[in-house]
Amino acid sequence: MRRRDFVATLALLGLSGRPTLAQSEPTPPPKKPTGDPEMVEISVTDVRQFWAAWDRAELKTRLAVFQTYYLDLATPGLQDFFAEQIESINALVGAIDFYRRYYTSVREATLGIAAQREQIRAGLRRLKTLYPEAIFPDLYFLVGNLSVPRLASPHGLLFAAEVYARTPTSPLDELDDDKKRLLRPFAELSALVVHEVVHFQQRTLDIAASLLAQSLVEGTADWLGELATGVPVGVELHRWADAHEREVWQAFARQMHTQQTQGWLYGTPADNGWPSNLGHYVGYKIAQAYYNRAADKPQAVRALLTEQNFERLLADSGYAARLGSP
Questions:
Q1: How many CA atoms lie within 13 A of 160 on its CB side?
Q2: CA angle (255 as vertex; 254, 261 as ends), nearest 5
Q3: What is the C-alpha to C-alpha distance for residues 217 and 222, in angstroms, rounded to an integer?
């Protein structure tokens, strides 16, 4: 939804007054990331408190109820997310009201994240085995305003549970195309969380400028997330792309040395009718090929996370040689 449409919606809902910021206790100082996956906090407290507030809220009281029973009880993760992304109780409740059918539909899945914590931790353990140098931030799940999937903060990685809770029966008719592209399948949750933890390890984020480099950064996180959890990522995207692999590669190869990511990454729509985020697919296939081809698997993981010569990774993977030049 465009900003002006959202502001108009707030006005219709009677929520357009001065923003009310959360009045939580002062945020405690952040912990340093740990090298021990057993010491990682995987918090779902905010998710439980959101739905407790939801059950108490009525039309005339919902601002006060969400303030008192959700924001005032916020964990450090929600406090950081609120300050960075939501900014006002009005924006939060406005989103809840505007997308009410979608929020209602994902309640069970968001509450189900609690049962996924051991699977997520098992993925962190496996990542530590794959990459012994790995360090881990705390992980916070919360319910936001359907604006971004996740944020990094001094307190850890923050995940908007409503974004990661899409199921095959989720109603999407309230959502515009940008919101639909934002959503992640709940079935892939553990791999998607480890994907973000992989980004925490990568030493190439700041120098990844070309389409090839950025796609390898994302695709490596997808591949290692899947390798660590056993959960396939991007199932719908891969199903389409596997049937068009050579065509996708040749289109990608024509642009891979540029910085043009439109249609390839970050949920931007393609102008040729193809799915968005195919850069994830190409990067995944290169990372997978590189890993599978390597005799020294630990060194292959380390190279995927630290190598700054992305052309070398591509060449050593054999992926381009297999599919041919455009």
A1: 21
A2: 155
A3: 9
CA 141 – CA 135 distance, rounded (Å):
19
Q: How far is CA 136 from CA 76, 196, 273, in A?
A: 17, 10, 38
Residues 25, 79: Cα–Cα separation, whole Å: 9
Neighbours of 173 (CB within 10 A): 6
Q: What is the pLDDT of residues 91-109, one digit of tens each?
A: 999 999 999 999 999 999 9
The pairing of strands 150-153 and 156-160 is antiparallel
pLDDT over 70 percentage in the chain: 91
Place of tokens 């190598």: 307
Contacts of 275 (CB under 8 A, 6+ apart): 236, 237, 240, 241
Average pLDDT in the chain:
90
Distance CA 261, CA 11 (A): 36
What is the value of pTM for the model shown? 0.89
In the chain, the amino acid numbered 210 is S
Q: How does residue 260 score in pLDDT terms, banded at 50, 70 and 90?
A: very high
CB 139 within 8 A of CB 150: no
Residue 172: Cβ within 10 Å count? 15
- Give Cβ neighbours of residue 13 (< 8 Å, ≥ 6 apart): 93, 94, 97, 98
